[in-house]
Every structure is written in structure tokens, then in C-alpha cells.
Amino acid sequence: METVIIETGNQQGIRESVSLAVDYLEKGSIVALPTETVYGLAANALDAKACAKIFEAKERPEFDPLIVHVSGEKMLRTIADIPEQIEATLSTLINEFWPGALTFILPKKEIVPEIVTSGLDTVAVRRSKNPIFAEIINTFELPIAAPSANRFGSISPTSANAVLSELSGKVPLIIDGGACSEGVESTIIKIESVTGRKKPSIQILRPGPVTPEMLKKFGKIEKNPKSKTSSKEPTSPGQLDSHYAPITPLRIVSSPDTFTPEPSKKYALLSYRGQKKDGYLELCEWVQIETLSPGSGKLPEAAVRFFFALRKLDQLGVDEIISEPIPERGIGLAIMDRLKRASHKYS
Ligand code: AMP
Ligand code: MG
To answer: pLDDT below 50 — which residues of the chain?
Structure first.
């Protein structure tokens, strides 16, 4: 299969790409689309055969369910049942964060094929704020399943070229909407009412751009109790210990004095602020240094550059990628979560 990248460019270009993407979705094909988090590999969420193509292209195991995108609350209600006890909180969160990088786990309706939810009785739902994606789903008028457009377990793509290097020959069409504005995957939450308590509990199943700080006024934040369990755990499948991994071994060095380079080895550095005073820049002769947020260190900027930088360092053919730790606050929590999983395979 040949993979075509369509650049959207001006208004006319956007209109043409939108209608082409919708044609592909309508004929049951997969297509890679930009979202504000990472690029998604999209298919009609109500068409089991089309969704099977996502699993096939990504080589994704069937126990790992897909996120379903909707155009708004009305479409959400066609695929999910909203328990009365959480209705008010859900509606407040939707008003506050949609469109945006917040995914809700909700009881699924029968109409959602089993393959989408890996047989679970819940479905993950979000609404993207990427204008091209929004235009596509508004025109298509059906929910779109779209997990990250990378091979399973590998680095998430934040540009059309990154999708191409992941899925060339496996997807017929990539819509190039430029670089993703958030850079890490959506925050996934589950809301549960607690008897005797006014505020519900909000379980963060995957940290992302919508941070615990942003969510805490809407409920009591609980970190996913299952997030540290085995990769076979079906209720928290995205929480696989090893994920987002480069081919090159990756190690997080929590303090510069704990790293002793081996003379025969070649290393690259993933630096947070690229500052000498942090103690990493002169630890060895780095083949390359990628800095996530040069200067003072801004976490949203670091998130946008993160997968892009990791992918760049992975192409150097060094023996090991060394990463500085990222401050675990705000979106830094999500970056560290990805870094830890990216390094897990090698620890
Ligand atoms: P991605 O490949 O980044 O789009 O991630 C999809 C992830 O969403 C999965 O790996 C799961 O972690 C999560 N997910 C999807 N559906 C469910 C569900 N019903 N329950 C819990 N997590 C889910
Ligand atoms: Mg993914």
C-alpha cells in the first residue's frame, strides 16, 4: 500500500483534505489525522471491520482498547450511558475542558463494537480541539476511533512525518496538520460518585495535558491504583509498563553524579533546560543534546517537544539515550510518566 501525505495549507487545502479524509472514513478505511495531543490513526468507531484495520496497522494487541472521538455531548450520548450520579460533574468537566485533551471512561452503549473497547463494558471518549479534526468529525457525523498513529509500544507521533516513519505502507492517507500543539496524549479519567461525599472521586488513569491541579476543584483526585500492575491488566491497558519506547535504550539519570559514562559507548542527552548548572551537559561527550525547553524550562513547551526530541535521538544510532528527570508537576507529570515507560524496557 502506498502512503500519501496531504498538506492542508490554505482554506481551500483544508476543505479538500477534510473531504478526502471523510471519503476514506466512509468507505471503511483508516486514515491518520492530526489532533492537538498526538496524531491519531482514525476509523469509523461504529464499524468493527474498519477498527480492526487500526489494530492490524499498529500491530496493537486486541486487549488494548481505543479512544473514541466525538463531536460533542450529543454524539457522546449515542455511544455512552451517563450514570445519573456523575452527570453533573461530567457536564461541568465537559464545559470546562472540551474540546480538549481530556478523555472520560464511561459505560458503553451496545452500538460500540467490542473490538473498540477490547470487550470492556466501558468506552473512552474525548473531543479534540484540533480544527482540522473537528471539521472532519463534524462532516463525518459519526464517532471516530483514533489511538496514536504509531506502531504499538513505540514513540507517539507529533508530526505527519513521524506518522510516516511509523506507519509507511500501512495507512493509505496522512493528513498533515502541522506539529501537535500539546505533544502528549490526553489525560484519561474515570469519575465515580462516593456515598456520603458531595464531591465525586476522579481517578487519573493516564496523566496528560489536563493536570491534577486543573481537576482538583471538581472532585477528589485519586491516582490510578492499577497503574503499577502488570501489562496484562485489562481494565488499565494503556498503563503498560513499557510503552512509548525508542529502539535505542533509554535511561533516566535522576542526578548527574550517578552517571559514569563507559569510554567505549556513545551517548545522547535529553535535557530539560539545557543549562550547565544542572550538571548534565559536561558529563561526557554527547553525540547530540536535545533540549526540551531551553533556558528557564517551561513544562508545556517541553511536552510539545518531547516525543519529537526522543524520536530524533533515537535516529542517531547511539548506544544509550540519557535523560534528565523532568519536574513532576503540571504537565511534567505526563512527560515523566511517558519517560518512565519509555525507559522501562531497558531497566
Ligand atoms: P492511545 O493509543 O494513546 O489512544 O490510548 C488508548 C488508551 O486509552 C488505552 O491504551 C487505554 O489506556 C485507554 N482506554 C481506552 N479505553 C479504555 C477503557 N474502556 N478503560 C480504561 N482505559 C481505556
Ligand atoms: Mg498510544
So the answer is: 227-236
Q: Which of 186, 206, 307 to mutate to test the pocket of ligand 1 (most atoms within 8 A of CB)?
A: 206
Which residues, by Cβ under 5 Å, contact ligand 2, an ion? 148
- Of 47, 50, 48, 42, the closest CA to residue 20 belongs to 42
CA pair distance 170, 166, nearest whole angstrom: 9
36 C-beta closer than 6 A to ligand 1: no
List all residues 6 or more positions away from 30 whose beta carbon is below 8 Å from its beta carbon.
Answer: 24, 41, 42, 43, 50, 53, 54, 57, 171, 172
Contact (Cβ atoms closer than 8 angstroms) between residue 256 and residue 279: yes
| 111 in Cβ contact with 79 (< 8 Å) | yes
Between the alpha carbon of residue 26 and those of residues 170, 215, 243, the distances in Å are: 18, 36, 31
135 touches ligand 1 (CB under 6 Å): no
Nearest of 311, 305, 317, 304 to residue 342 by alpha carbon: 311
DSSP 68: E
Whether the Cβ atoms of residue 111 and residue 78 lie closer than 8 Å to each other? yes
